[in-house]
Amino acid sequence: MKQQACYLPAEWHPQSGVQLTWPDEYTDWASILVEVLPVYEQIAREILKREKLLVVCRDKTKLPDFLQVESRQLIIREMSVNDTWARDHGAISLIRDGKPSLLNFRFNGWGMKFAAAHDNQITPNLMRQQSFAEGVITQDLSYFTLEGGAIESNGAGCLLTTSECLLSKNRNEHLGQAEIEFFLKKILHAEKVLWLNHGFLEGDDTDSHIDTLARFCSEDTIAYIRCTDSSDIHFDALQKMEAELKQLTDQYDRPFKLVPLPFADPVYDENGDRLPATYANFLILNKAVLLPVYEVQQDAEAIEIMKQLFPEREIIPINSRALIKQHGSIHCISMQFPQGVL
């Protein structure tokens, strides 16, 4: 990778830690807390084995015992929260001249679909509570709505996103595609913005966040969900997305290596509504990848593909059926920070 003075690091960049915002009885998880808390606890334990964990919560006395006491590895911060989607209310990290800086964008509940006034203040509150390392530069960009799940970086100048999300109403609708692309290049120092115009998941509230559809696994490799069942409602859109991916080129105008991920068998909630089960919503950690699985036959294939994509990292399957009941998965509930932030 060529050296840039400022760039948006890829997720596999060495990390200092990960933020989780903890569910409680006042979040949308209330009705299934007994199901979802063990998933959060498993994810928290896996993070703590490898790096620091920043836990945002309403009341730290409600945390499990192993998260009750701060340590060099564990940072706990109490504040008001609406919900727990740290990927989208968490700070986005840049690397400037070899040092990390944090960008605070506006989070408005995915285009004002859900209340987000408290979540929009989580990053500023963390800054005020001195949650980040001394000397970490912070920048307020709260005039622009941007969620972490809406963008993917290959760490070398390419930014991958979807027009369905970034051009949606109630985010930055006063700006056109050219203006948003100019902004992303200027603020996130992207050399090339890659737009996907097709692809969606039933049950997704985010207007097709890229982290549910296609992910960078290395500077030149993209893993993406592929639907081969012509009777499935997703078939046409995901076939068109695959065709778009084949036309994309990197910062050197070279095609990407494309690795299809299996499409999970349908998973439904108690009302018969389909849930967004996707293997693309994995989280890369130092020396590991947390992979959502859903108790369906495609889980085993997804695990094997991930082992090939990340041969130097341990692949840790996490049963995420509880997470998708609130329409997100592992990547959606977490936000990683590069070395030097925590």
Task: Describe the structure in your own words.
The protein has a single domain (6-338), classed as L-arginine/glycine Amidinotransferase, Chain A, CATH 3.75.10.10. The chain contains nine helices and 17 strands. The chain has helices at residues 33-48, 86-89, 109-112, 122-128, 163-166, 177-187, 235-247, 299-309, 321-324, and strands at residues 6-7, 15-21, 52-57, 74-78, 92-96, 99-106, 137-145, 152-153, 158-162, 192-196, 214-218, 221-225, 257-261, 283-285, 288-293, 314-319, 334-338. The strands form five sheets. It has a four-stranded mixed beta sheet with strand order 1-5-6-7, with helices on one face. It has a four-stranded mixed beta sheet with strand order 4-3-2-17. Strands 8-9-10 form a three-stranded mixed beta sheet, sandwiched between helices. The longest helix has 16 residues, at 33-48. The relative contact order is 0.17.
